[in-house]
Amino acid sequence: MNRRARFRTSVFIALILVVMALFTFRLYALQSSRDEEAIRTANSLTIWTNVDAARGQILDRNGTVLVGNRASYNILIISYVFFNGPSPNESLLELLNLCDELGIDVESNLPVSETKPYTYTLDDYSSVWQGYFRTFLASRGWDPDMSAQNLMNNLRADYNIPADLSDEEAYRLISVRFELSIRTIEGIPLDNYCLAKDVSSEELAAIMELGVPGVIVETTTVREYNTAYAAHILGHTGAMEADEYQEIYKDLGYAMDAVVGREGVEYAFEEYLHGTDGLLETTLLSTGEVLEQKYLKTPEPGDNVELTIDLGLQMTAENALAQVIQNLQENGTGSKQEGKDADSGAVVAVDVKTGEVLLSASYPTYDPARYREDFNELSEADGNPLYDHALLATYAPGSIYKMVTGIAAMDYAGWGRYRQVTDLGVYTKYADQGYTPACHIWTSSGGTRTHGTVNMMQALAVSCNYYFYEAGLAVSTEDVDYVAKQLGLGEPTGVELPENTGMRANAETKAEVYAGSGMEAWVDGDKLQASIGQSLNAFTPLQMACYTAALANQGTRYKATFLSRVVSWDYQDLIAESEPEILSQLKMSDEAIACVSEGMQATVNDYSGTAFSYLNGYPIPLAAKTGTAQHGSGGSDNASFICYAPADDPQIAIAVYVEHGAQGGNLANVVRPILDAYFSQESKYETTYSENTVQ
């Protein structure tokens, strides 16, 4: 028994010893593992990266996405990891050479010219960046007034740039080393250095294959244009100008290198389109291995902006305008083939009852997706494709202004719409002063034809200058100016995009324009020219369209707008919505209302009307007016055309203007396709795209 008891006791003790040994080994293993992890993470680094929020989308009135975003990659360099790697300069030079080979632009803010003799380029940078540069110099104890050449010599020595490298290679290394080192200075709150932006997946693979320590990838988005149309409306994005960060965007919480709207809708609705950036925390080992990543602040995309324009109408307008101008350039118009020097123009259409801009086309134009690639060529091209002729160019309206003179004569000088004037061809009232303006039909016929005796409605239809010389002299300049102002000419339209307000011909304007010349006085000759839309009258095509809509509304002018509504990025919340807003109201007599309506309809329907041969028989009743405007730049006259439809229940108002277009009637060929698309039986705003049409 004692022997058996001793055996059992020995086995039990042995088991206890085995268990204890196992626990001891496990504890040792755990401790060893923790020690290894501690050693492994002892040299870790935590970095914080600003994550750009995706910009909101831009859509047309039907929900078609005009501008969206696509995934993109940026290449960042983390200094801590990069300089822990072997041979930083050699690795960096290899990386830069590959970027050159792939055609990747390297980002750098080194404020020194790229070639000798080195000069500072500080004026190209914001005051904030200039301050950072001064801090950089002070951190090294260098003279803030040192020359650019001395700076480059010092940096080349500090960064241990090999002497056998060319000046070009040395500059490239220094420019990147500068970006890396300036981010290590206390008091300079810059994000990690972005070596290159918008790198393709193929380029990314080639770069990462180099295995350069500290080079990491940032996934982001860039703008993507889904249409080749509406370039001047949509605009583009880009980096901030020199002082914009300090003056505008800093207080809005933008990063210094944030992309912002530069022109068009991108600029006008920046507050909605720009999202809220996020903040990403990343823990790295000295080898570059990522231990942990987490968002301290999740990026929130910008809001979506829905515009009032219709892409189908916009396409129709741009194509029709281009076709008419190119046809003029090739063939001219009339017996004298005038208009071959036509080079630019615009067409704008607005909703009569709301002021919404349905289309705004400028010619020549460009593909917004290729703005940066084609910029140099576009900036030197004939007709200035980068310029928005619809909102920024101002032109003498010509005869489309005659409704202003007619309304003023009826409502302030007692004229009636049946008041008759006999056209004698040459207006001789001021012949003793050497001033004898003539009616266009007289000059174009070689002095053989006049309009005869016409009333005001007939004078509008045939565009009789002689009639409106008389009407203009019958009423004060102040009353004519008031009518023009209330109808929106020479006044802000209220549109969100930058616009030119132009000017009206009156005594104050002339005194200002001719100040100090001895020609400041407003005389009767000025009144004559102003009464037919000449003199100093100068308005944008957008203003002309709003003016046409105001005539259609019997004097009520609405604020023009490109904004339909703004919705959150997920379409769950309505952020803003445009409502019709009346800017001015001209009280027009029934006589004036009837005269304008009947005269503009007669322009289309009467055999002698200036738009008869172009639009007579159109299935929807139209009211229109043609115009021809002289100018001082030589060549063919400018051409203008306005209309609204239906004439008995106006919905759409259109204005067309072509520089050196010769005569306004020809511009009806721009208007007709727009009307066809607008009044399509399938749908008011539906447009059928032909095969292979790029949207």
N-to-C CA distance: 101 Å
Our Rg estimate from Cα atoms comes to 36 Å
Going by helix content, strand content and strand pairing, the class is alpha+beta
- Ranges where pLDDT stays below 50 over 5 or more residues in a row are 32-41, 681-695
Number of strands: 21
Helix content: 25-40%
**Strand percentage:** 15-25%
Largest sheet: 7 strands, mixed
Could you explain the architecture of this structure?
The relative contact order is 0.11. The protein starts with a helix and ends in a 17-residue tail after the last helix. By secondary structure, it is α+β, with helices and mostly antiparallel strands. The protein has 24 helices and 21 strands. 37% of the residues lie in helices and 18% in strands.
Q: Care to give the gist of this entry?
A:
With 695 residues, the chain is of the alpha+beta class.
Explain the layout of strands and helices.
Elements: H1 2-41, E1 45-51, E2 58-59, E3 65-77, H2 79-82, H3 88-102, H4 127-139, H5 148-158, H6 167-182, E4 193-199, H7 201-209, E5 215-225, H8 231-234, E6 237-238, H9 244-249, E7 260-261, H10 264-268, H11 270-273, E8 278-284, E9 290-297, E10 304-307, H12 311-331, E11 344-351, E12 357-363, H13 371-380, H14 402-412, E13 421-423, H15 440-444, E14 452-454, H16 456-462, H17 465-474, H18 477-486, H19 507-513, H20 524-531, H21 541-552, E15 556-558, E16 563-567, E17 574-577, E18 582-585, H22 590-605, H23 612-615, E19 623-629, E20 638-645, E21 652-659, H24 668-678
Parallel strand pairs: 2-10
Antiparallel strand pairs: 1-8, 2-3, 3-4, 3-5, 6-7, 8-9, 10-16, 11-12, 11-21, 13-14, 15-18, 16-17, 19-20, 20-21
Helix pairs in contact: 3-6, 12-24, 14-17, 14-18, 14-22, 16-22, 17-20
